[in-house]
Specification:
The structure holds 2 protein chains of 2 kinds.
Chain A (H helix, E strand, L loop, with lengths): L3 E2 L2 H9 L5 E5 L2 H10 L3 E4 L4 H7 L8 H10 L4 E6 L3 H10 L3 E5 L20 E5 L2 H9 L4 E4 L9 H18 L6 H8 L3 H10 L5 E3 L7 H10 L4 E3 L1 H4 L4 H13 L4 H8 L26
Parallel strand pairs in A: 2-3, 2-9, 3-4, 4-5, 5-6, 6-7, 7-8
Helix pairs in contact in A: 2-4, 2-12, 7-9, 8-9, 10-12, 12-13
Chain B lengths: L5 E5 L5 H10 L3 E5 L10 E4 L4 H10 L3 H9 L4 E4 L1 H6 E5 L11 E6 L10 E5 L9 E5 L4 E5 L4 E5 L9 E6 L2 E4 L10 H20 L1
Parallel strand pairs in B: 1-2, 1-3, 3-4, 4-12, 5-6
Antiparallel strand pairs in B: 6-9, 7-8, 10-11, 11-12
Classes of the chains: A alpha/beta, B alpha/beta.
């Protein structure tokens, strides 16, 4: 048989290789190097980390291809980049650059308030955010090969990441306990395709890797999210908005790997300096919350 | 399951669950190896797919290289897929200069040799030790074997297309390695082959004891 590129297996398989790892937001080659040295499993190249997007406002878009290419040349680990929700034009540009993964991300300003990108059209794999199981399954139907909890990016407040991870995994547990003839209504209520719902009910997990994201700022945050059932961790503003990025990056990698050993997490937390300042999600005006972007 | 050999899967990072799943389906006793002490119990060890730069870094930080080399020196069979192949190779090209490996496999491996993720692919490869039926192989940012030393058996090469002749599976005594990910497909023949390697060693050492 001839060689086939861009298959579901190849796209989902790529995410399987990242399991147990930390993916870090970086804005330049120097930060990318720090991330790789610290043991990051991939980097997310973007112009402004979510905390800065929040602070500065305006329309947040795909990053400058030159910056992304510079990062790709600097590190040997995979490089991801963000496209706006629904912006298939940006996604095409990113694919042509040869990035390893595209994040169709609510952190950027959405380009389409009804449709997401038809991700099955692409050779490059996509990761998408989700706040619940139905949303995750709709993204997978569109071709997403990896899911992350949305959390609330750029806040340093882990509470929404917890809410979303518990929600997704709780809904999976509920499906598992249902009788077969109840899955039709479950699919209707989740607003997700029946076949996918049946698959999740049978396997007891998503058919793709589930990472966590959105507000993870400390090693203990990462360890907790792994214990809740995340396959790995995205850290956005939490590292490079902190007092000592290198030490914090290493500490979060260590805590993610040794998530069930509190004494090692404690060691990782020691003397890290200041965490990012942080915003309580509850203090954010509703229209400033990113979790509601994506449908 | 008394008598089944214990085959650990090194769990620094990567697709550990898939390897444990394949080995368990074959009746082996398998679990992720997350602590150094677990190595003593291993009759065989799998180094899974993952990100080799990261895996090497984590192995160094947590002091895995020497214990892994001792295990290999003791003749315990090891199988590495993709990043695991890189971890077992004596020499790696296109890696960071400080990328350390366990070694033991006298080959030169080129990292990400087929390209980036957009070039990742699946295709059938002939692997005669598994029988006549080709093996459907999944290559993800995969390495290839650039050259092999004496005593290294080539188990599979890409058979058609522009990369025909590229070496993608090798064995040297108790060390087995593939560029591709047999753990991502339901075909368990590569894992069966490895379990057989482990079982025959366990039987031999029982016989001599």
């Amino acid at each position: 048989m001839n060689e086939q590129v861009g298959t579901d297996r190849v796209k989902r398989g790529m995410a399987e290789m990242l399991k147990g790892g930390v993916i870090m937001d970086v804005v330049d080659a120097e930060q990318a190097k720090i991330a790789e040295d610290a043991g990051a499993v991939a980097v997310m190249a973007l112009e402004r980390v979510p905390a800065d997007i929040r602070a500065q406002g305006g329309v947040a878009r795909m990053s400058d291809p030159e910056m992304i290419a510079g990062i790709m040349e600097t590190v040997s680990i995979p490089v991801m980049a963000k496209a706006r929700i629904g912006h298939f034009g940006e996604a095409q540009v990113l694919q042509s650059l040869g990035v390893d993964y595209i994040d169709e991300s609510e952190v950027l300003t959405p380009a389409d308030y009804a449709n997401h990108i038809d991700k099955s059209d692409f050779t490059v794999p996509f990761v998408c955010g989700a706040t619940n199981l139905g949303e995750a399954l709709r993204r997978i139907t569109e071709g997403a090969a990896m899911i992350r909890s949305k959390g609330e990016a750029g806040t340093g407040d882990v509470s929404n990441a917890v809410t979303h991870m518990r929600k997704i995994l709780g809904e999976i547990r509920k499906l598992r306990s249902m009788a077969e003839d109840e899955l039709f209504v479950a699919a209707k209520e989740l607003q997700a395709p029946y076949d996918l719902v049946v698959e999740v009910a049978r396997e007891g997990r998503l058919p793709v890797v589930l990472f966590t994201a959105g507000g993870i700022a400390t090693p203990a945050d990462a360890a907790m999210m792994m214990q809740l059932g995340a396959d790995g961790v995205f850290v956005g503003s939490g590292i490079f908005k902190s007092g000592d990025p290198k030490a914090r990056a290493e500490a979060i990698v260590s805590a993610t790997r040794h998530y069930d050993k509190p004494e090692i997490v404690a060691e990782a937390c020691r003397g890290l300096g200041e965490a990012m300042v942080g915003i309580n999600v509850a203090d954010l005006p509703v229209h400033h919350r990113l979790e509601d972007r994506g449908w | 399951m008394s008598g089944a050999p214990f085959i650990g899967v090194l769990a620094l990072q990567g697709d550990v669950r898939e390897h444990v799943g394949a080995l368990t389906r074959l009746g082996a006793d398998s679990a992720p190896v997350r602590a150094l002490e677990q190595l003593d119990a291993c009759d065989g060890l799998v180094i899974p797919g993952g990100e080799s730069t990261t895996m090497s870094r984590l192995a160094r930080i947590d002091g895995w290289f020497e214990p892994l080399r001792s295990l290999r020196a003791a003749g315990v069979p090891m199988f590495g897929s993709c990043a695991g192949m890189i971890m077992l190779a004596d020499q790696v090209l296109d890696a960071r200069p400080d990328q350390e490996t366990v070694g033991g496999l006298d080959v030169v491996v080129r990292r990400n040799a087929f390209g980036r993720q957009v070039d990742s692919f699946e295709m059938d490869v002939d692997m005669p030790v598994l029988g006549e039926r080709p093996f459907h192989a999944v290559f993800i940012r995969a390495p290839w074997v650039e050259s092999v030393g004496q005593g290294v058996e080539v188990l599979a090469e890409i058979s058609a297309g522009e990369r025909a002749g590229t070496i993608v599976a090798v064995r040297q005594g108790p060390v087995l390695a593939t560029s591709f990910h047999p753990e991502l497909t339901p075909d368990d023949r590569v894992h069966r082959y490895f379990v057989d390697m482990v079982e025959s060693r366990v039987e031999r050492s029982r016989g001599s004891a």
